[in-house]
Fold this sequence. Notes:
This protein has a single domain (4-261), classed as Rossmann fold. It contains eight helices and eight strands. It is globular and about 45 Å long. The chain has an eight-stranded mixed beta sheet, with helices on both faces. By secondary structure, the protein is of the alpha/beta class. The mean pLDDT is 92. Helix 7 links the parallel strand 7 and strand 8 (222-227). InterPro entries: AB_hydrolase_3, AB_hydrolase_fold, GDXG_lipolytic_enzyme. It comes from Phyllobacterium salinisoli. This is Alpha/beta hydrolase. Residues 34-229 form the Alpha/beta hydrolase fold-3 domain.
Amino acid sequence: MGAVWAEEILESDAGPIRVRVYRGKVAAKAPPLVLHLHGGAFLGGSAKCGHLVSTLLADAGAVVVAPDYCKAVKDPFPAALKFTYGLLGTMCKGRGQLASKKSALFVAGEEAGGNLAAGLALKARDVALGGLQGQILLSPMLDPSVATGSFRKTQAGEMNCKWADGWKHYLGFGACHPYATPGYSLRLAGVAPALVVTAEDDPMRDESMNYARRLREAGVSVHEHVLAGKTGWPNAYCDDTGVRPEWGETVRGFFTEFFRETGALAH
């Protein structure tokens, strides 16, 4: 443990982008390079909010690039996807400066960031972006119906739902492009291997498990985990107390195992 981060500027086709770059204290010769996208229901959040997950990824052996991205209130789909895809391309071309020319490239995200990560994996397949080796999805927002069994159970009695509001702003006037709603995509074959992590008390549990099942049925390699007990996900991902939660080391272990299984880290 003990990842550190620094603010860096990446030069992209759209101009300079300010990001956080996380690195573990012990680095492999060619560590995995991960684009990590924070949660926030498309309405809020920041790279600072994603600090905990970025740190866990770095402690698992990765170099992690964590940007802020545009909010759906002002910029609905496809603005955030377009921005993050451009950044992913910049990382692909410049991986030698960030990590190593031999580093494997991954996308990762929790909640709304998980939606973007899944959408990026679909787009990377379709435009043949070289080198995307895996997608890491934590409680991903994939189903805009917000009506699954797990969602109804955990949100019982709630009058206002930030996730429903987030979907409304993100999709605008009913857009259901597969990159915007990966859970509705009819063509999943050929996307990068996936690590899908959810929890028993996670409102996104059912849509996460359904997506993992459909990826597997499409022939995609999937690692799937459902944590038992109370996690407080997805709100608990944004923890700025500095105290690592009980599930932290378990999730870090999932990351390390996935990097190894995909060949991004030596066994």
